[in-house]
Structure formats: structure tokens, C-alpha cells
Amino acid sequence: MQFEFRTIKSPVEDILLKEKGSKFLGFAYPVNDEKELKKSLDALKAEHPKATHHCYAFRLGLNGENYRANDDGEPFGSAGLPIYNQLLANELTNILLVVVRYYGGTKLEVSGLVKAYKESAKMVMEEAEIITRELESVLEIHFGFNQQNVIFTLLNKFDGKILDFTTEQNCTITAKVKTSQKENISEVLSEMQHISFKFI
Questions:
Q1: Which residues contact 159 (CB under 8 A, 6 or more apart)?
Q2: For residue 106, which of 26, 19, 15 has the smallest C-alpha distance?
């Protein structure tokens, strides 16, 4: 089973391409879900309200199974698809790639548009730092106050990242662990007494 995917490390913004008076601004964002995706898109539209088009493509999911290419009013297939193809060419997922166009008065025809959107998306990709991310799962553990050290040692051993920790008579920890380690951690936790856990 596959436990990692390729994406970009951090956002890339304002990569400019000029073509016959039109300005194309390229942006790329690493996103984990549709909510983050929508937030990035809305922010861009608010930032560039006078732009003629906000064309984009995204891929989400381990194998990019959730995807979309949007021409935003440009002729069908002339913008979203060339942008999307750059994501495929770089084998990236959990990413949003947007090209914002300011029309400059000269029509580019479909072939000119395809070329400009492709070039713009490619320039963004050249600026991006591509990384391999491991899939992570969220684990919730309930345990007694006196078992804290054991739990912390265990999470440490498996490179767990603690997201939340409630300490009372009964404690709860929410942590992120590598999905590839899920079975190993479950095995160790199952053998411990007075502990309950679940993946959420």
C-alpha cells in the first residue's frame, strides 16, 4: 500500500507572464481538503477582483482521484486543462494551481490561450519546492494520569505529533502519526492495560 505522495512545500505566488498585453499571474497552494482549497480560491478572487479570469486546476487524494480543471469563462479546454496537465506532469496531488488573467485588449485565440496558460502554470511549478509527504492519521488515546510517561515515550518512538492534550484524572491525547505505522502503534496500545484508543 502507498503511504506517501508528492506535493509542494509552501505557496508560490505572483509569478508573472505577459502575453500580447494580457497579464497572467500564477499561484500554487498546498491544500489538504476542499475547505482549504475554497479558502485559497476565495482569497485570490478577493485580492484580484478586476481580473478577467481565475482559471485553476486541483488534485486531492493520495492518487489525485479528486480533481477538477476550471476554465472560468475561457474557451473550453483552453485554460483549466493546460494547468491541470502541469500537475500531472509533476505527479503532484493535494495542490491547487491558479492562473489569474488580466485581459490586455488583444485576443489570443484558443491556441494562444493554451500556450499562455501552460507556460504560466509551468513557471509556477519551476518556482515551487516539490516534496514527498507521508500520509498521516489522527489517533486519540484515553489513559490514566499515572500513565503519561508511557504514552509520551510511545508517541516519541513513533514520531507522533501531539495536537491536543487534556490532563485530568483521565487524560486524552490527540496526536498525528504516520499512517504506515498505524498497525504497529495499534498493536502496542492494544497490549497496554487501562488504555483505550481510536483513529479519528
A1: 177, 178, 181
A2: 19
